[in-house]
Structure formats: structure tokens, C-alpha cells
Amino acid sequence: MTSTRRPALFTGFWCLVNRQARRILGRSQANSGDPFVRTMDGHSPRKPIAARYLGHGHAAASPIQPNAVVCLAGSPESVADLLPTPQDARDHARMWTLRNTIRRTAMPQRRALTAAAIAQGKVPIDNLFVTSTELNKKTAPVLIGLANTLEQKFAKVGYFRPIQPSADSSMADHHVEVMKQQLGLNKEVSQLYGVTSERAIESWLNGREDDLVEEILDRFEQCREGHDFMIIEGSQISKHESAMSWKINVDIAKAIGSPVLTISDFSESANTNGELLEEILSRTALNKDQVEDAGLTFIGNIANRVNTKDPQALRAALRPKMDEKDLPFLGFLPNDDFIASKRLNEVTHQLGATQLFGTKAIPNNVVVTSAVVATSALKDLFSHLKNYKDGALVITSADRSDIMLGLMASRLPGILPNVSAIVLTNGSYPHSNTQEILKGVEALDKTGLSIPIFSVPEDTFTTADKFSKVSTDILPTSQLKIDRSKQLFDEFVEKENLIGELDEGMVVNRSPKQFQHFLFSKSRAVQRHIVLTEGEDIRVLQAADQVLRQNLSKVTILGNPEDIQRHAKSLNLDLSRANIVRTAESELLEKRHASEP
Predict the structure, then answer these.
(1) Burial track 121-153 (b if 16+ CB lie within 10 A, e otherwise)
(2) What is the DSSP string of 181-229?
(3) Spatial separation of the C-alpha atoms in residues 10 and 523, rounded to whole Å
(4) Are residues 252 and 318 in the same domain?
């Protein structure tokens, strides 16, 4: 029967982890006889084979180096009796190289963590986990303003997103691209996030959440190199799984050891200051309890998209109430019509439109107020447009030359509202004669007649439906919205309080996962070679699979290759990178017996 219990890597490696953990936490050391790898009884031929591997390579595809890490049951002195040559005896001392290396490299961190844990002192904050408490992706203004503020304090501010919403997800946005541009990061977009939301959900549902967090931690460590401070953006990875999103964000924040700044959306809340005041207080308190109950440090809450007619009065009323309830007061961002507006560059980007005519750079200051489907006669369209405001986007077919030319001509009298753009459906182009006229008008753009014309591959109905779902995301090209976000953050967010909370530091609260990641990172850096002597033990094979999957070391397994591969296949284990040696037929065993008197 296959065990469903999760393997503890392998007996020996966890011995190393436990010993290191006990040292760091100030507990008693493990017994000196605890093995890295348990073997059969003393008469098993695998003991001399494993011991022999310490000093000799093997004629295999993956030769075992002289510094391989092997420990047999019992003390080091008892193992020395199995070493046939003085050279092996010298190599025997290398059995402890991995542990000693970790001990040396971990010394500064271990001392700092131990001292902080005993004194309950605070350590400087060099990262901040920012996450929304609602299913909402309109948090870009807060991120932009936060980045701008932190750059005034820290020389090199970085950005990392543990889970990036998949491109086809309803939660897809452009936060990574915007933050890359705003912070001047020289990394590729793919280097600024851990995994996609699709990958995260799959790992979570398959019970591999530990592997998921470990992979994200690796990516974070690579991303943070060279930065004084890191902004870490939590994500709502699925509109159907908000509880799972919160749990994953908590696990990641714990693993990184990051304090949390929450963002609450108030776009659908009351617009009277009295009701807003109470709701901001209650939701901030709720967020604080939720974060601290998860074992994390709460920095504060920023209320986003607050509908208030008098933001200054609300701000003045909030401050004493927050102090009264002992809540950090970080301010809010009011709902802003400019940021909420749809811009032509954002609309065409989300429609996947290709520009045919007009100025080469799609202007980011052109507001799109509505969409009009033009299928009727030109005179009917003109009558219909009179009911719209400036900024209407006209969707029509490429064979309607009359509409394209008529809309341009209508600009002269200034009777009709200005049209922001024309979108042609079905991927078609205008008639050649019409194209010549459009190019001529484009060349004489000083006339003011030119209208940007785009083409989309979808039909008219699909295009109109996509327009109705266009969100007001901020793109890297949305410079006016970016500037407005910084302005609002400077005006309404209590930057001094925010920086003060960061300067206060935080009490060290290292999680087991964070400590485990620290040890694993050191193990990967050392990259030793481990020999497992009980290849028929399913737990050993499960441990080998996990070690190889996490790239902790090279692995050699002693045993029958056919049996081992059969077990691996039945357990869905990947041992393709393991070196499997059949002990009974090994030439080293023959040499050992030949050397015995």
C-alpha cells in the first residue's frame, strides 16, 4: 500500500535541518548518532559500497565526486572502519562539509534572528506586502503613488508580484508593466513575478502549496537583488476563489517575512462623510484584525476610490477617530473622474485594434465616452450622434466609405460632437479610392479633419460587446493618469505616517517556511552529492523525488534499477536525474571483497 503521508525529504536531510533549527532556536542538539541516511544492518553489502563511494568515482553517466555526502547509521568513528584506504579516511571528514558550510554561512543571520527573537526587538523593514481586500484591480493609483513616495526615501526601490493574473484571466491588468516603467527597473517583465495565477491555482488544488511558495520565494530572492526596498503586490488570483487568494497571499507574506498594507475599495460605498467615516473605521479595524490574526504585521489601510464631495472635511474628521481607536491613519484616495475615464490608447489596446490612419502615436489625452454602432444611412447616423457627448467611438464596416468621409466632413461646421475614433470590423480595409482620400487628409492634418481609424478582426457585434467590457486600466503609456495618481497620493495620503510606520520596524516573526527556505537556499548553493542506500524503501524514493525537484543536491540511489523505476512510475515520481546503481553487480563491491583477507 502506498503511503499518503508527505515524505520528510529524506531522513538524513531533515536531520540536518532539525539540527540547524535547534541551534538557531537555542534548543539542545540532536544525538550524535542520528544518521543522515539510515542503512541496512551491519552485514549489508551496501555499507562498504556507500563508504567506498566517498573516495572513488564511478564509471557512470553522472560520476560521484570525492566530496559526496554519505552517512551510515552510527557514529563517524564506526564508519571509519569501513573505509579501506587512507585516502578514504581523509575523504571521510568531508561527510560533514555540507553541515559545516551551512553553519558558517548562516552565522550572521542566525545571530541576528536569535537576538531579535530573545529581545523581541524590531528589525528594519525593507519590503512591504500590498494587497487589496476586495475583488478589485483598480489599485494602480495606490501602487504608483506608493512607489513615488518610497523613491524619495530609498535609493533603489524594486517591485515583485508573487502571482501574476494570466493574460486571459478576468483579473488581468498592467500593473507589472506600469511599475517596471515607473521604477525604471532593468529586468524583463517575466522576472518581476513569481508564477501565473493559472499555475498557482493548479498547484493549490493539487496539494502542492508548499512547492508553490518555495518557487515564489526563489523568484523573489532573485528579483530583490540590488534593491534597498521591495514593493510586493498581492493578487486576487480568481474572482471565484477570494478565500484561496487571501490564504495564498498570507502564506507568501509570512514566508517572506513582510508587513502588510491593505487597500480597501469604496467605489460602491455611501457618499456622505458621516457614513464614510464609520465605514472606513470599521473596515480598517477589520483588516487589522484579519492581518494580525494571520500572524502578520499590519502597517495600515488606504481607502481607495472614496466617493466624497468634501475630501478635506473627511480627512480632518478621520484623523482623531483613527487615533481614538488606535488605528494607523494613512489617509485615502478620492474617486477621480479623470482616472476613471476611458482613454483612446487604453480602449484600442483592449480591443486589440491596429491603427490604419491618423497620427502614429495614439494620444493618451483623448477621452472615449461611448460607442456608436453605425449600420444605418449616413443621415440617420448624424441625427443619432447629436444625442451623444464629445468622445464617441464609431464602430462600422470597412465598406462604409460614406460614413468615414462624412464624419470627417462633419468636423468643419462643428455641429456634431467630436468623434474620438472610427473602428472598422472584420479586419477589412477601406476601398483603395477611399484610402487615397484618407491619406491626403492625414497629410494635411492641420485642417483638423483627420480622425484616427483602426481595424479589428472581430465582427461588429463582438467588437461592441468587447467595448462594453473595457476597463479603465492604467497603461505604461497613460502618462496623464500616472501623473494624476501621484498628485492624489501626495495630497490625500498621510505620507509621513506611512514612512513613520516603516521606520518603526517590525518584530521578527520568522515562519518555519521562511527558515526552511533559508536552509534550502544554502543547500542549493553548496550542491553536494547524497547517496541513498535503501532504494527499495518507498519513503526514500519519495524523498529523492522531492530533493531533485527542489534542486537541493545530486542524488545517487543504491538498489535494483528496475524495481526503483517501477516504484517511481507507480508513485508518479520523477527520478530521471538520479544516478541509480545496482549494488549486487557493482565492480566496487568486487574490489572490496577482493581486498578483504
Answers:
(1) eeeebebbbbbbbbebbbbbbbbbbbbbbbeee
(2) HHHT--S-GGGSEEEEHHHHHHHHHTT-HHHHHHHHHHHHHHHHTT-SE
(3) 14
(4) yes
Is there a domain that residue 2 lies in? no
Distance of CA 94 to the CA centre of its chain: 38
Grid cell for residue 532: 541513498
Decide if 250 contacts 129 (C-beta within 8 A): no
Please give the span between the terminal C-alpha atoms of the chain, in angstroms, as a whole number. Answer: 43
**554 shares a domain with 463:** no
Tens-digit pLDDT profile for residues 362-421: 767 788 999 999 988 998 999 999 899 889 999 999 889 898 888 888 877 667 888 999
Closest alpha carbon to 36 in 67, 69, 62: 69
Is position 20 within any domain? yes
- Strands of the sheet containing 157-164, edge to edge, are 193-196, 157-164, 229-233, 127-132, 260-265, 298-306, 329-334
Tell me: the pLDDT tens digits for 64-119?
344 444 433 333 444 444 444 444 444 433 333 333 433 444 445 445 544 544 44
Residues 313 and 361 in one domain: no
Name residues whose C-beta falls within 8 Å of residue 510's C-beta, 6 or more positions apart in sequence.
Answer: 113, 117, 257
| Domain count for the chain | 3
Place of cell 546503481: 581
Domain with residue 201: its CATH number is 3.40.50.300
Beta-sheet strand order (sheet of 579-581): 529-532, 554-558, 579-581
Looking up residue 359, the CATH number of its domain turns out to be 3.40.1390.20
In which domain, by residue range, is 463 found? Answer: 342-468
Answer yes or no: do 522 and 582 share one domain: yes
Same domain, 244 and 269: yes
- What is the DSSP code (8-state) at residue 33? T
DSSP 543: H
Dihedral of CA 369/373/377/380: which sign?
negative
pTM (2 d.p.): 0.64
CB 513 within 8 A of CB 251: yes
Q: Considering only CA atoms, which of 497, 514, 180 is closest in space to residue 322?
A: 497
Q: State residue 538's pLDDT score.
A: 82
Residues 445 and 486 in one domain: no
Grid cell locating 474: 492604467
Q: Is residue 377 domain-resident?
A: yes
Query: How far is 211 from 6, CA to CA, in rounded Å?
Result: 12
Separation of alpha carbons 541 and 546, rounded Å:
9
For 294, the grid coordinates are: 494571520
Amino acid (1-letter code) at residue 66 = P
Q: Is 318 helix (H, G, I), strand (E, B) or coil?
A: helix
Does residue 54 fall inside a structural domain? yes
Q: Are residues 484 and 358 in the same domain?
A: no
Coil, strand or helix at 78 = helix
DSSP sequence for 501-537? HHHT-EE----HHHHHHHHHHHHHHH--EEEES-TT-
Same domain, 535 and 420: no
